[in-house]
Each structure stands twice: as structure tokens, then as C-alpha cells.
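In response to reviewer comment 3 from the previous cycle, which asked for concrete evidence that the modeling workflow produces usable outputs, we include below a single protein chain processed end to end. The sequence was submitted unchanged, and the resulting C-alpha cells are shown without manual editing.
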Amino acid sequence: MSEYQSPAFPGPDTLNPILTRDGQPHLGTVFLKPALSHPRIEVGDYTYASAHRPPADWAAHLAPYLYDFSPERLVIGRFCQIADGVQFITASANHRHDGFSTFPFLAFGGDPATAPSLPPPGPDTVIGNDVWLGQGVRVLPGARIGDGCIIGAGAVIGGALPPYSIAVGNPGRLLRRRFPDAVIAELLRIRWWDWPIDLIRQAEAEICGADLAALEAMAAR
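The workflow returned the following C-alpha cells.
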């Protein structure tokens, strides 16, 4: 019996980057960049999403209220990890809520140019690099999640989270920072996620083992 050998690391344009033991693509995991064709979504290389039941439309699955004509954008960085059940509730899901009623009269007819029930355009939702969104996370309109954050399963996140934060709960709350401020500042300077993939693979042990000195040395080459 021949020994199983892991396939080469897939390129960023690979739709299904994980292969089963028999060499077939695992349809429940995709690199999002090649999986999406949506004018209001920007995704960096190697960011992946998983679903127990693979959707036919990954954009509608992840951001069901972000339409082709929406004014806001969803921006996701490189090397993010998006678990099953994550949804981005973007600003086009909002109703106007500063008046006596929140009812969206425009949805049932009217001129968008003059409709009083139409809320003003909302902010972009921005996810940094190397962010892990756990199972069932909800990201609210205009959220800004910094590089290296970890969001616990089932959390509902709005507002801004600084880089390398851990957030949990509903409403989401900052549990702690992952590293001391000086280490975070250096990681943000190094930005390993922007390195060539061959160098990142060489540095896998240092990145995953939190060997900052070794990463600094590699960055200085």
C-alpha cells in the first residue's frame, strides 16, 4: 500500500482547496475569492469559508442583504477563516428607525429617489487579515474587525474591534487581547499575510508557534 502524501498547497484561485483522501474536491470548503462574483464584495487571497451544506450562491449565503445595487461594500482580508453559519448583516438590511415607524414602505412600491422610508446609505463592513469567525457568528452593519481577531461561536459583533482581539457573546464583547501591545505592533508591521506564499509556508512553524524573533529575521531578508 502506498503512503498517503499531502497535495501541494493550492493556489489562491482554487475553488475547492481541500481534497478528500480519494483525491476528490471537498465541496463544503471554498477559497472565497474564486467562489464569488459580486460587485460589492472584495476578498483577499486564501480566505476560505466552510458550510456543512454547500450553497449554490456563496455571496447570498454569507451576505444575504448585500445586493448588486447596494451602496455599501463587504471587504474581507487575506487568510481569513469563516466557519459554517457565519453571516454578514450588511447595511442594506437596515430599516429607517428615526421616525414613528420602521416599516419599509419602499419595498412594496415607490420611487427610491424620493421614498421617505428609505434609510440613508450605510457604512462598509471591513474584516482584516487572518481573522477567525467561529460557527454561527453574525457581523453587523459597519463592523470593523482588525487583523488577527478571533470571534467566538455564536457571537454578534458590531462596531470596531482592535487587532488581535478575542470577542465573544451577544452583544459581542472584547474578552482580551491575544498578545501584548508591543507584539501586536510588530505583527502589524511585519504583515506576514502579505508575504509570498512560498515564504509563508517556510515560516509556518514560526507563525503558528508565535516565534516573533524568527519572523522578524525572515522579514528582514
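Residues 180-221 form one domain. We consider this sufficient to address the reviewer's concern, and the full set will be provided in the supplementary archive.
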